[in-house]
Design goal:
Number of helices: 19
Number of strands: 13
Structural class: alpha/beta
Strand content: 5-15%
Strand order of the largest sheet: 1-6-5-2-3-4
Distance between the termini: 59 Å
Helix content: 40-55%
Shape: elongated
Oligomer: single chain
């Protein structure tokens, strides 16, 4: 299927410049396009995954993407989508974060692909050396104040306050587009729906400053990802879902997608996977006819985890999932146990030479020996998937996972991880 039509049928196009002109340009020959990613943390989160995959889709279709790391704009802060002023981070911190984000982007785009290798750029390379007087004279004069105030990203902040620093962000992003056009022949910018004002401002700047008045520049935005239950996409009880496996483990990442609501799973399959629309339609039938099998959710979790973390990490996530929810904890290694139970209460104890009743109290599973005895007698205490109801049970009688772990379950859902020092 032609790329633009595929994006449209997947629901990935929110706004765009002239559709006929854009379709014609994409279909006629490879286009160079870019998307920017500001280093506001030491990792991107899954909110950035959709624009990254847009670049990847274009590259797979034969076009040439530029991943722009905002080493310069990251020092300023984009007001788009923010209710209040950002905290400005030190230059050294932003520089370090920019390097990490550059590495992450390299995982998704092919910088050695024959014919259309991706390009990685950092806007600090040109923003960092700007001279304020020259910039205001040559660039600033092309931005009518009325037009800037009318942009949604600015207008939404006027009542709550916006500094000149963030107000100027639009000019810097527009300048990025102009520089990428000069350096690489970039003709198109893509971004989230909140970037439309900045994208069109960049197109207008290039129109005003270009000697070639017939030059056509293009823009495309993707929709804001929302969840049907009203919870913000990419958020969990423990916080944001990061692309860095050290911040969100592949197992937790896999679980995030596996727990997708039936109302959202087909939309997310279209957004975040490279499965064909025919394959997704087949999975949609399964959601309608056999929702309890959750085939669509498993396909989503499998595809996205493999895409972001690779086959080995996917295998590990599936192994931990199978062990935790299907029995089989004994087959897990120490690192897999800690990864699978990283967000449950845990305790490290010195000696296993105690009774089970005392263990439950020391590890914080219960608050008193009376409560521990009641839990054991009522059959509510499970150790490594096995129920224990004998009050005389002692810890030395329990088989420890990998020689040092006990997974305690109290009731149906309350898990605790106990580790004994070797």
């Amino acid at each position: 299927m032609e790329l633009f039509q595929d994006l449209k049928e997947r629901g990935l196009i929110y706004q765009h410049t002239d559709e006929q002109a854009l379709r014609k340009r994409i279909e006629s020959s490879p286009i160079i396009l870019y998307c920017g990613f500001d280093p506001t943390a030491d990792s991107l989160h899954i909110g950035s995954l959709l624009p990254i995959l847009i670049l990847k889709r274009f590259q797979l279709a034969g076009h040439r993407p530029i991943a722009l790391v905002g080493g310069g704009t990251g020092l300023i802060g984009d007001p788009s989508g923010k209710a209040s002023e950002r905290v400005l981070n030190p230059k050294e911190t932003v520089e370090q974060w920019a390097g990490k984000i550059k590495d992450q982007l390299s995982h998704f785009l092919d910088f050695e692909r024959e014919g259309n290798p991706a390009i990685i750029a950092n806007n600090y390379d040109w923003l960092g050396s700007l001279q304020v007087i020259e910039f205001l004279r040559d660039i600033g004069k092309n931005f009518p104040l009325g037009a800037m105030l009318a942009k949604d990203s600015v207008d939404a902040r006027m009542s709550k306050g916006i500094s000149y620093t963030e107000f100027s962000y639009m000019i810097l992003q527009s300048y990025d587009y102009m520089k990428l056009n000069e350096l690489y022949g970039c003709e198109m910018q893509v971004g989230g729906s909140d970037q439309w004002g900045n994208i069109t401002a960049g197109i207008e700047l290039i129109r005003r400053t270009s000697l070639d008045q017939a030059k056509e520049m293009h823009g495309l935005t993707i929709p804001l990802v929302t969840k049907s239950d009203g919870v913000k996409f990419g958020k969990t009880e423990s916080g944001a879902v990061w692309l860095d496996p050290k911040k969100t483990s592949p197992y937790k990442f896999y679980q995030f997608w596996l727990n997708t609501d039936d109302r959202d799973v087909i939309k997310f399959l279209k957004y975040f996977t490279f499965l064909s629309l025919e394959e997704i339609a087949s999975l949609a039938e399964g959601v309608e006819k056999e929702p309890e099998k959750r085939k669509a959710q498993r396909a989503l979790a499998t595809e996205v985890t493999k895409l972001v973390h690779g086959q080995e990490a996917l295998d590990r996530a599936e192994k931990i999932t199978s062990a935790l929810f299907g029995g089989g904890l004994k087959g897990l290694s120490a690192s897999e146990i800690e990864e699978g139970f990283s967000d449950v209460p845990s305790a490290t104890l010195d000696s296993p030479e105690i009774a089970l009743v005392d263990l439950l109290v020391q590890a914080g599973v219960v608050t008193s020996k009376r409560q521990a005895r009641e839990g054991i007698e009522n059959g509510a205490i499970y150790i490594n998937d096995q129920r224990y109801s004998d009050l005389e049970t002692s810890v030395p009688q329990l088989e420890r996972l990998d020689g040092q772990y006990l997974v305690v379950r109290r009731g149906k859902k309350n898990y605790y991880l106990i580790k004994f020092k070797r």
